[in-house]
Amino acid sequence: MSEDRVSTQGASGIAVKFAAALGRLALFLQLYLILASRWQDGRSLLGGVDVFFSYFTVLTNILVAVVLTFAATSGDSPLRRFFLRPSVQGGVVAAIVLVCLAYNLLLRHTWNPQGLQWVADELLHDVMPILFVIYWWFCVPKGILRWSSVWPWLIYPLVYFIYILIRGRWVGSYPYPFIEVDRLGYPQTLTNALMVLVGFLLVSWVVVAVDRARGKG
Q: What is the mean pLDDT of each run of 10 residues along the chain (217 residues)?
């Protein structure tokens, strides 16, 4: 099996298609809820799109949906080959696991979503991370990752933090309470960001360790 191939035959192929569709549904639902809320409050819908793309959860779930969609479909393109590389999928696994852990450990207690928002919340933070880890475990070739693979993965959260700090200074709001510069100040915000990056690095090394153990097995 080549590095850019995944095992999605038979029942596993149906399951991957279902997961890809569910991931897209969760994202569309969250976007709808943000836009509907802003419409009711008479606020800019374009600003709602900006808010939607400001969440690390949303951006990472977009990556998950893209990988699953490419895995569930056939064809050949440079973009498809890129996203189906085990090294790329390993980085996406690390990011979506971080989303799940950070939300459940740091953010779940900060609000109490109801109705459709609760559905979107659970799909994006719990259901899709679990489904993607299952997909990665069974369908992605193992034994390819190296310990050095984690360093390129760090680019994604680093760029995100830089972007969100610049955006926050521009619009005056931040998507997560632990990076609210206007309330915490830069020293505490950067410390919090560094702790999250360390958490991402630890999760990444676990992903590599599992990959190498499964490859040997």
A: 56 90 98 96 94 97 98 91 96 98 93 95 98 96 95 97 95 93 95 96 98 86
Q: Which helix (H) or strand (E) element contains residue 8?
A: none
Tell me the domain boundaries of the chain.
Answer: 11-216
* DSSP secondary structure letter of residue 217: -
Look at the alpha carbons of 95, 19, 62, 56 in this order and tell me if their dihedral is positive or negative: negative
pTM over 0.90: yes
* DSSP letters for 65-123: HHHHHHHHS----HHHHHHTSHHHHHHHHHHHHHHHHHIIIIIGGG----HHHHHHHHI
What are φ and ψ of residue 62, in 5° steps? -65, -45
Find out whether 92 and 60 touch, Cβ atoms under 8 Å. yes
C-alpha to C-alpha distance for 144 and 212, rounded to whole angstroms: 7
Instruction: Say if CB 4 and CB 84 are below 8 A apart.
Output: yes
